Amino acid sequence: MDLENDKSTRVGSAPLPEDTIGGALLAALLVITLVNVFVRYFTDQSFAWTEEISSVLMLVLCLAGSASAIARDSHIRVEFFFDAGSAARRQRFAKFSAIANALFFLALGLLSAQMAWDEFRFGDTSPAIGVPKWWYSIWLPIFCGILCARSIERFRRSGPITHHDPETGSL
Questions:
Q1: pLDDT digit string (tens) for 105-114?
Q2: N or C: which end of the chain has fewer CB within 10 A?
Q3: How far apart are CA 123 and CA 6, in angstroms?
Q4: Quick check: is 90 in a domain?
């Protein structure tokens, strides 16, 4: 496993598309929130749509950040168990983690696609501004697909699993 030399995991490497998306979403979230604060401060009124839009932007921001973390192999894990073993054990953990992530986001993506389809089919609208709810929920299956693809990419980059030979003591 040569994740240490992988260019996408190095600090200072070129930004991933998920990083750019995340930056744009964070900027949009900042502008929407600031506009709402100023309007509330000066008029004692609030834009009802800002909370609705902000919630969706925050969800998509988290998913974009997760895709970036998976691509760089910097997602949360229990380092005590990961670092305690041999290189072969770390490689097996990395592969297991990548497959578990891929399966989880595949299942979540399929279920959320069904939810978005139901919202589209039944014509559900959002409470604050009355737009179709599937406009918001469609982003979850899209980003779950991206997360699943990034996990599979991470699995493939971790290389073949090496087995320990008990007779020679080598990997």
A1: 999 999 999 9
A2: C
A3: 46
A4: yes
